[in-house]
Design goal:
Elements (H helix, E strand, L loop, with lengths): L1 E6 L7 H17 L1 E6 L11 H17 L7 E5 L5 H10 L4 H5 L2 H9 L6 H15 L5 E3 L5 H18 L7 E3 L34 H9 L16 H14 L3 H7 L5 H28 L1 H24 L1
Parallel strand pairs: 1-2, 2-3, 4-5
Helix pairs in contact: 2-11, 3-6, 3-12, 6-7, 8-11, 9-10, 9-11
Bound molecules: adenosine-5'-tetraphosphate.
Amino acid sequence: MRIFSGIQPTGRKHLGNYIGAITQYVAGQDRGEAIYCIVDLHATTVPYEPADLREKTYDTAAILLAARLDPARCIFFRQGDVPEHTELTWLLCSVTSWGELNRMHQFKDKAGAQRELVSAGLFLYPVLQAADVLAYRADEVPVGDDQRQHIELMRDIAGRFNARFGDTLVVPEHRIPAVGARIMDLQEPARKMSTTGGSEQGTVYVLDEPKAIEKKVKSAVTDSGSEVVRGPDKPGISNLIEILSVVRGVPMEAIEAEFASARYGEFKAAVADAITGYLAPVRERYAAIRADEAALEATLEAGAAKARAIAAATLAD
Ligand code: AQP
């Protein structure tokens, strides 16, 4: 089985990215032929500074390697190094409708947030994402819940391409985790934890120091009740229960049972402790990996050569 996923070089990856995507990437290395890329071209769909983007690409690569992506067991590269992605994007445009792209939630949200220019790239973002996956004929795409609509579109694009031009592309399945697919902002638990749309205080970053994590979790918005149970009227507590369940690797019911007679303060302290312990190994490994840019560049270049061999064969077909 072939697995493919991409992640944006936003540099400061957060707990949602880590739980929803990065841990799945790491596990994918044991489940099949895993291919992961840092999607620098996707990052150009909103305003960016070239030098900053280059730095953030290294930051993101270092986070993924610190999280235990192993270039010996997966193909790990930078999207912009493999021109087949953009070439396939154009070919896929012929089987993608304007109406479909116009219905994408992410486009509507991000277009609405732009002050000056809503780029055509932002509109075509899901087609480039489809090309990323389809160029490798991947069977499975590990992502968080926010990417569900884009994966559905990519499946439609692949199916339409095959119907029109003959069986060429693999129609991929998404792999969205049952728990942790949508980690919510700690300050605004009705919206997902996000790089661009969230609150600074409600976003736990993978590289946050323990003190910062503690402060953010302890000030997380909760409801006026006192019971540590999930419920539609308790989005803040439900989010913390879900986070603790993933971090500890136990069912959410077990968390509710353990904290049945605890107060919110005690529960939040346990959540902060657990997140700190969970992310600490990544933060500790990060500094040394990030310091060696030549090694990062060599890793990404070697990955791109392997990726290109696969993508070029698809393009030739
Ligand atoms: N809150 C989340 N919970 C679970 N998974 C999430 N993902 C994103 N947010 C959550 C998943 O992380 C992967 C990488 O996403 P990306 O490449 O879009 O990176 P990003 O731009 O840093 O992520 P954001 O936070 O989603 O950015 P915004 O909100 O600015 O667009 C994806 O698999 C995604 O599902």
